Amino acid sequence: MAQPAEASLDLPERAKENIENAVKEKKPKKEKAPKPPKQPKEPKESVTKPAKPAAAAPSAPTDPEAMFKEGWLAAVRKERPADEPVVTRFPPEPNGYLHIGHSKAIAINFGFAKFYGGKCNLRYDDTNPEAEEEVYFIAIEDIVRWLGFDPALITYSSDFFDRLYELAEKLITLDGAYVCHCTDEELKDQRGGTDVKNKHERYACKHRDRPIEESLAEFRAMKDGKYKPKAAFLRMKQDITDGNPQMWDLVAYRVLEKPHHRTGGKWRIYPTYDFTHCLCDSFEGITHSLCTTEFILSRVSYEWLNNKVDVPDKPMQREYGRLNVTGTVLSKRKIKRLVDEKIVNGWDDPRLYTLVALRRRGVPPGAILSFVSELGVTTATINIQITRFEQSVRKYLEMTVPRLMLVLDPILVIIDDLPDDHYEELENGFGPKDVDMGSHKLPFTKKVYIERDDFREVDSKDFFRMAPGKPVGLLKVAYPIVATSFEKDESTGLVTEIHARYDKPAAGEKPKKPKAYIHWVAEAPDHGSPIKCEVRVFNPLFKSDNPDSVEPSFMADIREDSLKVYPNALAEVGLKEIRERAPWPEQAGEKKEKCGPESVRFQAMRTGYFCVDKDTDDETGKIVLNRIVSLKVDSGFN
Ligand code: ATP
Ligand code: MG
């Protein structure tokens, strides 16, 4: 959907098309600001306030339907007859990949229709041939389906070009539009001028009163290629005395010389958002046209045009608050720069907040929907830090994905007093406490790998993991081990091997309880252990919470160390079964045949949540894992 003229400082591409309609300047002093249209009343107990950050302890995920049952959306539903079937649309402009903010629009439009037993169309708002590309059409549909929604219809604004043209002629005939030849500057001047200090009364364009027949002839001439871009426009004849800039004779059609990806060279004139959206809504029988609050002033022009040409079923526009995520950039132009300058590896780089990136990073679709639902829907814009989003994802994964052990940066531990051929199979449950996800056999042998961070060459009182002479538990293993000596590589200074003994109690003695348990994987090649992996850990791409405000640009806010790769990580054998049994979470309804590798999701005990990356290649045996989120909010940078 195109942005209205006053939308944001970061002018989306499509808004530039409507430059003639741009009314960024402040309104003249004396004039009353236009009253925003009435919003449905929100019941007191509505989910208006964003919920507090979720506590670390597991809690029930938010009811994903709560946002439709109560609050703003429930009130919007009540504005139309209860027996009228709900029809909505999600209207992206196919000029880029969708981002996390769009997931709110998808959840609202598709979810609202689904909840009330209605239908939602996916409508490509493709009225600007200058910005659209085939790849975006495919990616958008793919992401909508990935989020779990099936469009009732897939439509294109361009499918309606003939009907829109007919209505434009009708509008002219009704004395509701005229062809204008003014420049951008002249348009601005008619609307009161751009100089804030020197505002003057608005005045009508000299073309406004030309005869209907003349406008009709000129409009046809525009269509037939008589005019170059900007040499002629069709403008709606609204009410320039109205306080609402959306009534100041908006542009309905403009000349563009670019062929359209669907209609080819058929058209030389293209309708604007303001002309197209309300009419397409009525063509599709949309009942609730839900959009973001930047469009609030457009509600008047939306209704004006539908009434003027008298479309049969009048849709209703209502506006909800945008979802912005801070600590990252969402603008297409900025992400494109990150991609072009190879700061990230493509639009689906897991450090980005495009939906393709979140999918690749392993964030389940259900977690995104439950995040949106947790925030609730109101007219207020919501600014959320990425850490808050991650907390919501963590909460979602906690009870729904299996657990296993993964060592990111391994050191070999040789348990000297176990026989060379020692082989034990421990039973390892996949599920968290109280959740049955089955179990698997975990080999335990004389040689195990532990995390480099879990060993210290010199012990200290505040350190509870492995150090010379100190017993430490290996998760699931009966008795602790105690480090007896270690070897180091002189050139790197890194520990290469630790020797340990098995701290089995003598007969009659009580087993000792270690202060801490660490994760590990065993060397048992005959039993497929360990499984070698490359692990990618993603940290924030930007240093500040608001990269958009950094001078001279957001590029100065980029962190050097946002991607950390562990090339020699080792996973325990359970990974094989977890891959076979994917998708995880099991109950989330993702269809196996439609799932990518990212649906293999698990918790690596003590380490974080991970998924399989698309760079995995089973032919060559290369497995790549992505960290979805760390285990705790404060587990910090690594
Ligand atoms: P952007 O310029 O950030 O891509 P947009 O509004 O131009 O945003 P569209 O593809 O035109 O993006 O938007 C499709 C739909 O998604 C519109 O209804 C729009 O209002 C909605 N939408 C876009 N961004 C957000 C957001 N951050 N929060 C909620 N809804 C959004
Ligand atoms: Mg846009």
UniProtKB/TrEMBL annotation:
Q: Where is this region: Disordered?
A: 1-64
Q: Which InterPro entries match?
A: aa-tRNA-synth_I_CS, Gln-tRNA-synth, Gln/Glu-tRNA_Ligase, Glu/Gln-tRNA-synth, Glu/Gln-tRNA-synth_Ib_cat-dom, Glu/Gln-tRNA-synth_Ib_codon-bd, Rbsml_bL25/Gln-tRNA_synth_N, Ribosomal_bL25/Gln-tRNA_synth
Entry annotated with the keyword Iron: no
Q: Which reaction does it catalyse?
A: tRNA(Gln) + L-glutamine + ATP = L-glutaminyl-tRNA(Gln) + AMP + diphosphate
Q: What class of enzyme is it?
A: ligase
Q: What is its EC number?
A: 6.1.1.18
Entry-linked SUPFAM superfamilies: Nucleotidylyl transferase, Ribosomal protein L25-like
Task: List GO molecular-function terms, semicolon-separated.
Answer: ATP binding; glutamine-tRNA ligase activity
Q: Boundaries of each Glutamyl/glutaminyl-tRNA synthetase class Ib anti-codon binding domain copy?
A: 402-503
**Gene3D superfamilies named among the record's database cross-references:** HUPs, Ribosomal Protein L25, Chain P
Bias class Low complexity marks the residues at: 50-64
UniProt-listed GO biological process terms: glutaminyl-tRNA aminoacylation
Glutamyl/glutaminyl-tRNA synthetase class Ib catalytic domain segment(s)? 86-398
Going by the UniProt record, its keywords in alphabetical order are: Aminoacyl-tRNA synthetase, ATP-binding, Ligase, Nucleotide-binding, Protein biosynthesis
Segments forming domain tRNA synthetases class I (E and Q) anti-codon binding: 518-579
Query: Which ranges are annotated Basic and acidic residues under compositional bias?
Result: 11-25, 31-47
**Record GO cellular component, one term:** cytosol
Q: Which PANTHER family does the UniProt record give?
A: GLUTAMINE--TRNA LIGASE (PTHR43097:SF4), GLUTAMINE-TRNA LIGASE (PTHR43097)
Q: Which protein family is it in?
A: Belongs to the class-I aminoacyl-tRNA synthetase family.
* Name of the protein this chain belongs to: glutamine--tRNA ligase
Species annotation = Cladophialophora chaetospira
**Source organism lineage?**
Eukaryota, Fungi, Dikarya, Ascomycota, Pezizomycotina
